[in-house]
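Section 3.1: Structural characterization of target chains.
Under the original work plan, the team committed to producing a structural model for every single-chain target entering the pipeline before any wet-lab resources were allocated. The record below documents one such target. The sequence was received from the expression subgroup and is listed exactly as submitted; it comprises 119 residues.
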Amino acid sequence: MNKTNNPKLKSFAQNLRKNMTKEEKRLWYDFLKNLPITFHRQKVIGKYIADFYCASAKLIIELDGSQHFDDDGIAYDRIRDNYLSEFGFIVLRYSNEDIHNRFDGVCADILKHINLPIE
């Protein structure tokens, strides 16, 4: 399996990149884009699309809206995270509220996982 190229999801991922949520925009433009390592937005990995992906850190970052907190969303995310962890990825999840209310803490946590110094 080519875990980063799923033609069925490619156009969907491109659309998601063009239409990021305000929380995704904030994390991307105010933090991830400026890091000295490469992150990708809306990256196809197997049968899923990761919000943010860093190959060198084997890290996936997911921003979760309200749909992720009902029973179905929790179960789906658990299956998805298990699938991605089988490929050696670490999946970090932050709620949209985390981005709004503790952005600096989210950034510090990400830096900890990619082994970059906290400024």
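The longest strand covers residues 48-54.
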